[in-house]
Write a structure and sequence with these properties.
Blueprint: H1 4-40, H2 45-66, H3 71-95, E1 99-106, H4 111-119, E2 125-131, E3 134-144, H5 148-158, E4 163-169, H6 188-193
Antiparallel strand pairs: 1-3, 1-4, 2-3
Helix pairs in contact: 1-2, 1-3
Length: 199
């Protein structure tokens, strides 16, 4: 049986720092996701996330201040912040929220690429332009972020030497997007549409 004298150092130097570490992971992860939701226009869900974020933060910082001489608490606090940032970014990447614009510039004929993308229900705008080395074809596409990996793969397949850039779009009206069928009755994207800021 562990007595109180043995338990106190274990709690102070192991259990308490672990609790602070995991609390910081939670609140920083929520904070990262909240900022991303704000940038994507989800004005209703972001304050709710912020409420839980600050409550967890208060609990964590309160424990640090109550144990101000405990160096392990400071290390746990910093490590939790770093880990929470990473976890929040990883979750955002998995959610694949929002839309992006892809610009493709190529000095080769792009007819096959355009036809392939359009055949798969991607909206493509193609214009003729002049680059530093002569005539080029410029393609514009507005995509769901979840389709970005597939589209960049198609671009590399048809135009391996093409230059392309990707930029976040806060909102887009209308447009041509492929239908995506979720294996669930309702996808996370459908649920989040309810919380999106009206335009």
């Amino acid at each position: 049986m562990v007595d109180a004298v043995t338990l106190t150092p274990v709690f102070a130097w192991v259990i308490l720092p672990l609790l602070i570490f995991f609390a910081r992971i939670c609140d920083v992860t929520l904070g990262t996701i909240r900022v991303i939701f704000i940038s994507k226009g989800f004005k209703y869900i972001a304050p709710c996330i912020g409420f839980f974020e600050v409550i967890i933060w208060l609990l964590a910082i309160g424990q640090v201040m109550n144990n101000i001489t405990n160096v392990a608490s400071y290390i746990a606090y910093g490590a939790g912040f770093a880990t929470g940032t990473f976890v929040g970014m990883a979750i955002e990447e998995k959610l694949s929220l929002g839309t992006v614009i892809v610009r493709v510039i190529t000095n080769h004929e792009a007819k096959e690429l355009v036809e392939y993308l359009r055949a798969h229900d991607y909206g493509v705008t193609a214009i003729d332009a002049t680059g530093s080395s002569g005539p080029v074809k410029v393609l514009f596409m507005v995509l769901k972020r979840q389709d970005l990996g597939r589209v960049t793969g198609i671009i590399r397949q048809f135009q391996p030497n093409a230059f392309y850039s990707i930029e976040d779009v806060k909102s887009a009206a209308e447009g041509v997007f492929p239908e995506r069928r979720s294996k669930y009755l309702v996808s996370h994207g459908d649920l989040l549409k309810f919380f999106r800021k009206d335009k």
